[in-house]
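re: that chain from earlier
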Amino acid sequence: MAKATIELITALRLTADNLRNGAYHSWGHHGACNCGNLVQSVTKFTKEEILQYAHTGAGEWTELAIEYCATTHAPLSLVFAKLEEVGLNSSDIHHIEY
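^ sequence. v structure.
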């Protein structure tokens, strides 16, 4: 279960505000889906950068979260490390999408 850190709460609120104010959202786009928009808030990466990083793995965020290994140094690992820093785990990432 997510840790309700100040950073996570701030990121979730920023993401909700961004979406409410017209931020691009696309269910099938790793950088612009629910999790992609949250990653934008947490990392300041663009949706294009997130898409590029996500394509280093296989599948949607739900599969990527399951296969995530914190000991590697691939760009996708950086994305997950940033999400962990604000209090999320792989199960939380799955729930953000569904």
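The longest helix spans residues 6-20.
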